[in-house]
Amino acid sequence: MLKEPESMDECVYFTNRIVGEKGSIKCWVLRNKCPKCGKGLMEKPRDPKTGNFKIRSEEYVCPECGYTVNKDEYAETLIASIKYVCPKCNYSGEIEVPFKRKSVSRLNEETGKRESVKALPFECAKCKNKMLVTQKMK
After folding, report:
1. In degrees rounded to 5, what are phi and psi of residue 89?
2. Is the pLDDT of residue 122 over 90?
3. What local confidence, expressed as pLDDT, does residue 137 receive?
4. Distances (CA, A) of 96 to 12, 56, 100, 131
5. What is the pLDDT of residues 77-96, one digit of tens each?
6. What is the C-alpha separation between 60 and 97, in angstroms, rounded?
7. β strands within 4-78, DSSP E
8. Region 12-28 average pLDDT
9. CA neighbours within 13 Å on the CB side: how many for 81?
10. Which one, of 84, 83, 57, lies nearest residue 69 by Cα?
């Protein structure tokens, strides 16, 4: 049984999507505890004037002890938790995968052409149907 987040403050990433006509995917990545003190959850540094997170920062900071880690190093340790309903076999399952997006080729339903997108791939535990949690494009 996966631990679902109680608030968005616990998450690095969260999405809830409909796949096909009867499928769905809910994916979240919980923030890790500080590797040094083990008390605080790692977060982006805050702007001292406004108190808001610096979203373009290249590092994560522990609010308890001030320990700093590079964004890329921190990203290597993240685990994505996924609850899904397979659109092919209607199987409802849960899975945990490393939070590493890969470039995959998929068919764009609107244009009918193949395109390369960054996605978190995983398979249905029952029918082995490949499913993707795609990165939102701007």
Report:
1. -105, -5
2. yes
3. 62
4. 15, 27, 12, 14
5. 999 999 999 999 999 999 99
6. 22
7. 11-19, 23-30, 59-61, 68-70
8. 90
9. 13
10. 57
